[in-house]
Structures are given as C-alpha cells and as structure tokens.
Design a protein that fits this description.
The protein contains five helices and no strands. The radius of gyration is 13 Å and the shape is globular. The protein is mainly alpha-helical. The protein has one domain. α1 packs across α3 and α4 runs antiparallel to α5. Helices cover 78% and strands 0% of the residues.
Length: 90
C-alpha cells in the first residue's frame, strides 16, 4: 500500500509541476547521479502527461516504452501506475 502512495505522490508532483520536480531531483542527485533516479523520474513522466489529459499514439508509445524500461530493470512492483494508464487508453 505504501509503495502505491509513493507512486501516486510522484505522479501528482509530476503532473502539477513536472519540470520543476525533475530539476529538483536532478539537482539533488547531481553530486552522485544514479540510474535509479533517472528511472524514477522517467517512470512518472508519461503517466503524468496522461493524467493531464494527453492522448494519442505519442503518449501510448511513451507509456509502453516506460513500461518496458521499468520491467527491464526488474522493478515490476513499479509497473502498476503505467499499467493503469495503459488500461485506460484501451
């Protein structure tokens, strides 16, 4: 339950002020950048765009691509928000 709340919080922040949140996270991690940080920000961007009402092939491709990247990192517990957005597109 807690991981879903964290994911929802990330999506909310990215939908309200995506560039500012990404800049803040990048600045925080600049001294010691980690692939995990990039993956977390990337994971939230496409669902945030979907949440703001973006539809069409571009967002579907972005969601599918993010899902493949998250699954490829073997972080399947992070897929729920992407799967939810993809299901809503169908």
């Amino acid at each position: 339950m807690q991981r879903h709340a964290v994911g929802a919080g990330l999506i909310f922040l990215l939908s309200v002020r995506p560039e500012a949140y990404r800049s803040e996270l990048d600045a925080y991690a600049a001294a010691e950048p980690l692939p995990w940080t990039a993956l977390m920000v990337e994971r939230g961007q496409a669902p945030a765009r979907f949440g703001r009402g973006e539809r069409g092939d571009g967002i579907a491709g972005a969601l599918t691509g993010r899902r493949a990247r998250v699954a490829g990192a073997q972080t399947n517990h992070l897929l729920s928000v992407l799967d939810t957005a993809l299901s809503a597109m169908a």
